[in-house]
Design goal:
58 residues, mainly alpha, 2 helices, 0% strand, extended
């Protein structure tokens, strides 16, 4: 395990560079995976029951 101490700007730049190294298809999959992970976080917002949501099924 490696621990690095960086400024917020340096850390953001490294994350951005690593993301841009991915192929466009892998960027999309990475984004969808991140959205799926955030979907399971607790939230105070209520789900829209009218069915007007945009849903991506893989």
């Amino acid at each position: 395990m490696e621990i690095n101490f960086r400024s917020k700007e340096e850390s953001n730049q490294i994350q951005r560079d690593r993301f841009l190294e991915l192929s466009p298809a892998n960027r999309i999959y990475s984004f969808i995976e991140l959205a799926y992970i955030f979907n399971s976080f607790p939230s105070h917002s209520k789900k829209n029951e009218k069915g007007n949501n945009f849903v991506i099924n893989l």
